User: What shape does this take?
Amino acid sequence: MKQLSVVLFACLVLISFSCSEDEDGGSDSSYEFKEQVAQGTINDKDWTLGSGYASSSSNDRLSINLFGKDFETPCDVFSDRGVLIFFTLDNKVGVTELKFDFDDLDNSKTATFLDPDAGGDFGPLNIIATEGAIEILSVTDSEVKGRLDIRNGGDNTSSVNGNFTIDICQ
Assistant: This one.
C-alpha cells in the first residue's frame, strides 16, 4: 500500500509540473510587442525610430529600412543613414517569427542591425537578429504599418521593440 501511495504521489507531482504555466505567463511565443515607437539598443547604443521607408519588389516582397535619424524625405537617403535596421518580408499582413537555421536557410528569417561606425577598418558592423518577430499590420499603396520585437540573441546587445509607420518608395 505504501508503494502505491508513493507511485500515485509521483504521478500527481509529474502531472502538476507538466500542466503548469510557463515562467512567462503561459505564452509559448518568443516575442511580446510593446505599444510604443520602435526603440531599444543597437550595439549597446540607445536607438529610437526617426524615419524609414519600404520598397516593394516584383516578387511580392517588402524591403524595409528603419533609421534612428529623422529624415524629411527618407526615400532619398542613400548615405550617412546612421545606425539602422533592415529586413525583407513577404508583402502581406501577418507575423514573421525570426529564426536562423544552417540546415534550412531557405526558411530562415532574420533582420539586420547596422552600426556604420563600429566596424573600424572592416566597414560597418552588421548584427543579425535571430530572435523575436516582426508583424506587418497593414500595407497600402503608400505606407506600411507594423511592429517588431527583435533581438540578436546571446548577449542581446541589440534589441528593438515597438511600432513603425513608414512610406513606400516608388
Q: What stands out?
A: The two ends are 78 Å apart (CA to CA). Residues 1-27 have pLDDT under 50 and may be disordered.
